[in-house]
Structures are given as C-alpha cells and as structure tokens.
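Input record (one chain):
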Amino acid sequence: MFGRHGFKFGRGGCGPALKGEFMRMRRGDIKFHLLEILKETPRHGYEIISELEKQSGGYRPSPGSVYPTLQMLEEGGFLTGEQIDGKKVYTITEEGLKLLEERGAKPFEANPKMAQAFEMRKSLMKLGAAVMDGMRDNDEETVKKISEIINKARRDVYSILADS
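The corresponding structure, as predicted from the sequence alone:
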C-alpha cells in the first residue's frame, strides 16, 4: 500500500515507492542489458545480476527475471553457458553480438531518482536496525528517548514536504 507521500508500507518493507520508470527496466530490455554485460567478459549469473545492479544505480533484478532470460538467449544461440568450477558461466556468441549491433547503441542509463531512492531505502534500513537494537535490553528511559527522536524526525520530514 502506498502512503500519501509516495512511500510503500507493508510486504517488502518500508521505503520509497518506486513507480513506473523507477521500478524496473522496460519489458524486453533485460536481454539486451544481459548481452551488453556479457560483451565485456564471460560471467556467471550472480556476477551478471550484481553488474546490472551496479549499472542501474541500485535496482537489483530478481533471479526469476534473469535466469529464464539467460536460458532463452542460450536456446536462441545468442550466448553459450558452460560449467566452470561448479558455476554456469555465460559467454556472448557472434549471434548475440549481431543482435546487439542490429538493435543499435542504447547503453543502459541509470535514472538518478532510482539511485536516490535506493540510497534512501538503505538509510531507512540502517535506521530501523539501530532502533530495533535500541529496543532490545534497554531501560524504559532509553526506549522513550529513541521514540522521541523517531517522532521528531517524522515531523521534520512532513514539515519539509509541506514546504516543497
């Protein structure tokens, strides 16, 4: 559920609501991003996902979207996969290079708002962890002080939003 100021609450945690273009890459684009990454050097799935996250400014695609696409590209002859040290390493083929060439140059461009949203989410997660640590095994006065800080921070944020 989205709160009134664009924050998502409920399943998946609490953080900036990443809607539309901020949330994920366009349907069908992932195959080109995977091929672009493999054009640099052969990689296994986890490395590919990590590189996508790095290039996007923080959006980490799910393995459920990456691995089936890798399999489809392999079946189509656009890349090959071989077991190396217990991991499947993917390499782009000539057909894959040709597909990228036919598509034309469309490098992955990270959206700055997406990167900001992920940084904000990381900060919120760290704050939440600190608050939960403060709640454990602490006296009532410490818990009260932490609660006051959180409530003041919330009011300050709403004040900033009201002025913008």
